[in-house]
Automatic annotation (TrEMBL), chain A:
<protein>
    <submittedName>
        <fullName>RasGTPase-activating protein</fullName>
    </submittedName>
</protein>
<dbReference type="InterPro" id="IPR000593">
    <property type="entry name" value="RasGAP_C"/>
</dbReference>
<dbReference type="GO" id="GO:0005938">
    <property type="term" value="C:cell cortex"/>
</dbReference>
<dbReference type="Pfam" id="PF00616">
    <property type="entry name" value="RasGAP"/>
</dbReference>
<dbReference type="Pfam" id="PF03836">
    <property type="entry name" value="RasGAP_C"/>
</dbReference>
<dbReference type="GO" id="GO:0046580">
    <property type="term" value="P:negative regulation of Ras protein signal transduction"/>
</dbReference>
<feature type="region of interest" description="Disordered">
    <location>
        <begin position="633"/>
        <end position="669"/>
    </location>
</feature>
<feature type="compositionally biased region" description="Low complexity">
    <location>
        <begin position="652"/>
        <end position="664"/>
    </location>
</feature>
<dbReference type="GO" id="GO:0005096">
    <property type="term" value="F:GTPase activator activity"/>
</dbReference>
UniProtKB/TrEMBL annotation, chain B:
<dbReference type="InterPro" id="IPR005225">
    <property type="entry name" value="Small_GTP-bd"/>
</dbReference>
<keyword id="KW-0378">Hydrolase</keyword>
<dbReference type="InterPro" id="IPR001806">
    <property type="entry name" value="Small_GTPase"/>
</dbReference>
<dbReference type="GO" id="GO:0005525">
    <property type="term" value="F:GTP binding"/>
</dbReference>
<keyword id="KW-0547">Nucleotide-binding</keyword>
<dbReference type="GO" id="GO:0003925">
    <property type="term" value="F:G protein activity"/>
</dbReference>
<dbReference type="GO" id="GO:0016020">
    <property type="term" value="C:membrane"/>
</dbReference>
<keyword id="KW-0342">GTP-binding</keyword>
<dbReference type="GO" id="GO:0032486">
    <property type="term" value="P:Rap protein signal transduction"/>
</dbReference>
Length: 772, 187
């Protein structure tokens, strides 16, 4: 850029350049600036901690899987120990010693971050096993500043490219966005970022608690299940076999009067719980994060473009609902613990929660219950009918958001006063991983021999192999724009305009400070003077920014006809700036409420982090135990491992002393039961014992340890065979609906067995003895 | 012979036709519309090899966002139908992990299972060859393999019948010869 050119520009500016600045209210501006600094720090912390949680969460799952394999002798202890190393990466940082390597990587990630088509293409090329790692790197590292509008903007425009591809390939509306693809994974990973999680908390916690706080709530409306539960309940409570026939057809179950009586109020309850969810979701429309609404908008526009005019409103809403409800809201409803919405969940709540989720699901898909699918859901059509319009209306509203460029303006004050430099926090392994993916797919990603990506990759050389966990660490990588000039020309004019506008504001602000310190006569009123000041102060960043403004303005005027001339252009930008930024009261109010919300988000993330850390501690202790038992007892290896596994499963960790090692002298019994009596009571369901022998058979029940019962079958006072019963096992059978306890020669009713054991051994009165 | 109960779980990626297969089997109707499932449960009584069986079939969510629900129903299931679509690579590639998870949850190597390549009526769009399916079933310890079409009712009953037979072989009904010994003096 020649200096004569610049001074010409300066001459054309006019002296009212600083009108923008003088309209600022300094005091309020400072309050806002302070709030914004706090917000910025908070957002950074949320971004880093949510990334850390994401990785920890995955690590916990990996170790869990490996331990399970270890228990089955499928992998070695060393393998497991290795994956347990250095789990918490957050604390470990390093630098890349080689300066040119550091810069090349800075250039590479700048290129990837700003030219979104590389990642968009890559996401479709990678293998199943690689996609999660890639997405993690994209969502939490490359665009890891989750509240940074510029990064959000870039990330979303990357989405746009992938979405467009998906629509291009689609053959029918019915199949769109249904299968699990790189895109749907991306959409979900996106909802896992801070803002998405915040909305879930806000809209779901209350209606969820209606269910998860209720220990005894049962919303089961499947008549077969209700029928069985009714029988089980009857038998375990009374000790008498139920007069009802087992295993009848679902239709018959549904006709049973008791079953009907149980189900009717549950249907009512479900409808009111469903309403509560819907009210809350619809009511918090305004807090749905912009990016999520924007994705909904894209879906709507793309589907209308592609299938018009043969697309109905209900089809469009079905698709939007397919993303918003099916992939975003409903998973959080059915597994709220995985989303940090509820800390612990009772087993009965789990099943209960699937019902409201199914109701919302059918509502969004515009599908009635019943028909060829679960017939017993039909009464819930009441819910669908009364809410269909309401939901569609909401889904329509969801898509009413500005386009990316307009939105970027909304909160721009945040970006002001911040340096234009970008750093990302990335691990060495992430760098090497992305590098090697790019290498593999370079021919598709950059077919052109002088594509910038090719140039950078050839400077970088081959990708290093993955490091062991112990060697891996975080790097603060400064992103560098290697192709500064070409870049501006190729990007979208709205984007250039916005960027220029904000550069201008930054520069003017800085100059206003300068003007305050000098007499009126020396005050700056032109661009040329600004260049002078910047040069005198040796302020390189200021110089760069000024140059960029001039270059951008030229591009906008000459290439895109944004304005007639410089003056016109500046006038336009000034007007925009005044409109956008100086409604301070509203901005301050908003920043206060944002601060409050973000603090809550951070608290939740940190809480989850503590939970994950504890889990890892449990695993560490477990692994230490295994190691110890390997070292000491070689003969009883298997046994020790089994026991450890049990400890782990029950989550009671280390010091569970198993009963068998220290037998307690709490022997109870024997209690004697006649075969004929048990048969009469309905306990014996089936038997191989010949009829004529039955009258001479007794069962002796004894218990040496709580929960374990030995039953000896006596024939003419001779012991014939023995069965060992475990209460745990029986309860487990009952909970999964198994009612028959099978031994080699006899089948017993589980409910009645539990009743008898409880009655005899726990409460101490022997029902049979009493009868005698 | 009394009615025996079988708990069957149908698993696989979204859109492969789990619901279509299940509903075709239970109701004899092909579901054209794609309505992603969260979790549906069906019962049907059938006669297999002269025995009356009550099947409880759990049709699960293929949508990956619901995978956190899997552990629970894997624990309760006795037999598993693993479905992919012959016109989609990714649905095929997801199955080995799914099988791993079943074996892990069941803590057992020998779990009754049928591998199903669905939508075989769409032969012109096929991307997974029959041989590839067979190859995968060999990797799955020689588990049963069928190509099926929920739409044209090809091999639908066979899937469930085969599974019932497998479960029967694993836990035979009534006493086996060997077990009888202990009580033979009674008999
Ligand atoms: N041509 C053809 N289409 C099928 C077949 N089976 C299912 N479909 C179609 O594929 C789509 C998805 O089928 P579903 O049975 O709903 O898929 P799913 O596996 O239950 O999907 P999720 O519930 O989301 O896990 C529907 O439009 C079906 O009509 C088949 O054998 N042939
Ligand atoms: Mg389905």
């Amino acid at each position: 850029m020649s200096s004569s050119n610049l001074s010409n520009q300066g001459a054309a500016m006019g002296s009212d350049l600083f009108d923008v600045i003088t309209q600022q209210d300094q005091v309020k501006g400072d309050v806002l600036a302070k709030n914004q600094k706090l917000l910025f720090d908070l957002k950074r912390e949320i971004s880093l901690s949510s990334k850390n949680n994401f990785t920890l969460d995955r690590d916990v799952k990996i170790i869990d899987k490996k331990i399970a394999l270890l228990v089955k002798n499928r992998i070695s202890l060393e393998d497991v120990l290795q994956s347990g190393e250095a789990l918490d990466l957050n604390s470990k940082t390093t630098t890349i010693k080689d300066k040119s390597k550091r810069e090349f990587y800075g250039q590479l990630f700048y290129l990837l971050q700003n030219n979104t088509h590389y990642i968009a293409q890559l996401a479709k090329l990678v293998k199943v096993g690689e996609i999660d790692n890639l997405l993690q790197c994209v969502m939490f590292t490359l665009y890891g500043n989750q509240y940074e509008e510029k990064e959000e903007h870039l990330l979303l425009s990357m989405f746009q490219k992938v979405l467009q591809e998906e629509f291009k390939e689609a053959t029918s509306i019915g199949s769109l966005l249904r299968a699990n693809t790189a895109l749907t994974r991306m959409m979900t990973t996106y909802t896992r970022r801070g803002p998405g999680q915040q909305y879930l908390k806000q809209s779901l916690i209350k209606p969820l608690q209606n269910i998860t706080n209720e220990r005894d709530m049962n919303l089961e409306v499947n008549p077969s299940t209700v029928y069985e539960a009714y029988i089980n309940d009857y038998e375990t409570k009374t000790g008498k076999p139920s007069p009802l026939k087992r295993k009848v057809s679902p239709e018959e179950c549904a006709q049973n009067p008791q079953v009907k009586e149980i189900i009717a109020p549950r249907i009512e309850k479900l409808i009111s719980l469903g309403d509560a969810f819907l009210d809350s979701i619809i009511g918090s429309l305004d807090s749905v994060p912009y990016g999520i609404r924007w994705i909904c908008k894209q879906i709507k526009e793309l589907v209308e473009k592609k299938f018009a005019p043969n697309v109905t409103q209900s089809q469009t809403c079905g698709l939007i609902g397919g993303f918003f409800l099916l992939r975003y809201i409903n998973p959080a409803i059915v597994t709220p613990t995985a989303f940090m919405l509820v800390e612990n969940i009772l087993p009965n709540s789990k099943k209960n929660l699937t019902y409201p989720a199914k109701m919302l699901q059918n509502l969004a898909n515009n599908v009635m219950f019943g028909g060829v699918k679960e017939f017993f859901m039909e009464p819930l059509n009441v819910f669908l009918n009364k809410n269909r319009d309401r939901l569609n209306d909401f889904l329509e509203k969801l898509t009413k958001v500005e386009n990316l460029d307009e939105n970027l303006n909304m909160d721009q004050y945040v970006a002001l006063g911040k340096s234009t430099e970008t750093n990302i926090t990335i691990t060495l392994n992430e760098m090497y991983f992305v590098h090697s993916l790019l290498e593999q797919h370079i021919n598709v990603l950059a077919p052109n021999p002088d594509d910038p990506l090719r140039l950078i990759l050839s400077d970088l050389g081959p990708a290093a192999p993955q490091l062991s966990r112990a060697e891996n660490a975080n790097v603060e990588l400064k992103l560098i724009n290697r192709f500064a000039d070409q870049q501006a020309e190729s990007s979208n004019p709205d984007q250039i305009y916005t960027e220029t506008k904000h550069l201008l504001f930054n520069v003017l602000r800085e100059m206003a400070t300068y003007n305050k310190q000098v007499p009126q006569s020396q005050q700056i009123t032109s661009f040329a003077a600004m260049f002078q000041v910047a040069a005198n102060a040796k302020n390189l960043e200021l110089q760069d920014n000024l140059k960029k403004i001039v270059v951008n303005m030229k591009i906008l005027i000459q290439k895109h006809n944004y304005a007639h001339n410089d003056q016109d252009m500046i006038g336009k930008m000034k007007k925009d700036l005044v409109n956008e930024f100086f409604n301070f009261d509203a901005h301050i109010q908003k920043s206060n409420s944002d601060l409050e919300k973000l603090k809550q988000v951070l608290a939740a993330i940190q809480e989850h982090n503590v939970f994950l850390q504890q889990q890892i501690k449990v695993y560490e202790e477990y692994l230490n135990n295994v190691k110890a038992s390997y070292d000491t007892a070689d003969s009883s290896k298997k046994k020790d491992k089994k026991k450890d596994k049990k400890d782990k499963d029950s989550k009671t960790t280390t010091t569970t002393t198993s009963g068998s090692s220290s037998p307690k002298s709490s022997k109870k019994g024997p209690f004697k039961f006649a075969y004929s009596q048990l048969e009469k009571d309905g306990m014996i369901i089936e038997s191989e014992v010949p009829n004529d022998k039955r009258s001479m058979i007794f069962f002796n029940f004894t218990s040496e340890q709580p929960g374990i019962f030995d039953v000896v079958l006596m024939y003419r006072n001779v012991s014939v065979t023995e069965i060992r019963l475990q209460l745990d096992e029986l309860l487990e059978m009952q909970s999964v609906g198994k009612v028959e306890y099978e031994t080699d020669f006899i089948k017993l009713n589980v409910n009645l067995l539990i009743f008898l054991l409880n009655k005899t051994f726990v409460t101490g009165d022997n029902p049979v003895d009493k009868k005698k | 012979m009394p009615l025996r109960e079988f708990k069957i779980v149908v698993l696989g990626s979204g859109g492969v036709g789990k619901s279509a297969l299940t509903v075709q089997f239970v109701q004899g109707i092909f579901v054209e519309k794609y309505d992603p499932t969260i979790e549906d449960s069906y019962r049907k009584q059938v006669e297999v090899d002269g025995n009356q069986c009550m099947l409880e079939i759990l049709d699960t969510a293929g949508t990956e966002q619901f995978t956190a629900m899997r552990d629970l129903y894997m624990k309760n299931g006795q037999g598993f139908v693993l479905v992919y679509s012959i016109i989609s690579n990714s649905t095929f590639n997801e199955l080995p992990d799914l099988r791993e998870q079943i074996l892990r949850v069941k803590d057992c190597e020998d779990v009754p299972m049928v591998l199903v390549g669905n939508k075989c009526d769409l032969n012109d769009q096929r991307v997974i060859g029959t041989e590839q399916g067979a190859e995968l079933s060999r990797k799955f310890g020689g588990c049963a393999f069928l190509e099926a079409s929920a739409k044209n009712k090809v091999n639908v009953e066979q899937i469930f019948y085969d599974l019932i037979r497998q479960i029967n072989r694993k836990n035979p009904v009534g006493p086996s010869k060997k077990e009888k010994k202990s009580v033979c003096m009674l008999l």
